[in-house]
Write a structure and sequence with these properties.
6 helices; transferase; acyltransferase; 221 residues; Octanoyltransferase; Octanoyltransferase_CS; globular; single chain; 29% helix; EC 2.3.1.181; three-stranded mixed β-sheet; alpha/beta
């Protein structure tokens, strides 16, 4: 656990199967929504998995048979976040900010983007959010996917930052249903393998700096 802020805690889950991490999310979300635990950012890596958001069209945006995915050791799970289909796997840093949001969804998404842009800037990369396309981009290639859900005024799910991710696995899907843009990673952009633990520490610090101006109060009920 990183002690980076009094406003929220950061918990490192290491490497965890997707559904196990989802159970942790639900448990923490319930406690945060009940005001029994401070807001929490969960950081984790997952074994290879495809997740289908509420807008996902499996027949269109997963472009290989399920049998093939199974042979490759890639699980598939439908979940309650927004968005379409996305990939998680080794070498990708996934973050689940379980923060109060209320109706401030757009503001919350801009804070998420800003924190990740700050982290990428540490590596000399000029990244940005893109209106109409959730996530963080370097040029026309997405380096971090973003997809959240809001229940009881509290967010869960979150972002997936490609660090040393196997980008070949993205060829099995149309990432987030976007057909005319690509996917990249820090490793590809910088031409070298990046220490995921280093990125994790930077993300924790950059969330602390970015969210110091965020309103963590719950809306009046």
């Amino acid at each position: 656990m990183f002690n980076v802020s009094e406003a929220f805690r950061v918990t490192d889950l290491g490497t965890l199967e997707y559904l196990q991490a989802l159970d942790v999310q639900h448990e923490v979300h319930g406690k945060v929504a009940a005001r029994q635990q401070e807001p929490t950012l969960l950081l984790v890596e997952h074994p290879a998995v495809l997740t289908l958001g509420r807008k996902a069209k499996e027949g269109e945006n997963i472009i290989v048979p399920r049998e093939f995915l199974s042979q490759q050791g890639i699980a598939v799970h439908a979940i309650e976040r927004g968005g379409d289909v996305t990939y998680h796997g080794p070498g990708q840093l996934v973050g689940y900010p379980i923060f109060p949001v209320g109706r401030r969804v757009r503001d919350f998404l801009r804070f998420l983007e800003a924190a990740l842009v700050k982290t990428l800037g540490r590596y000399g990369l000029e990244a940005s959010g893109s209106p109409g396309y959730a996530g963080v981009w370097v040029g026309d290639e997405k380096v971090a996917a973003i997809g959240v859900a809001i229940q009881k005024h509290v967010a869960f799910h979150g972002f997936a930052l490609n660090v040393n991710t196997d980008l070949d696995h993205f060829s099995y899907i149309v990432p987030c249903g976007i057909q005319d843009r690509g996917v990249t990673s820090l490793q590809k952009l910088l031409g070298r393998e990046i220490n995921v633990q280093e990125v994790k520490a930077f993300v924790a610090e950059d969330f602390r700096q970015t969210f110091q101006d965020y309103d963590f109060s719950f809306p009046d009920l």
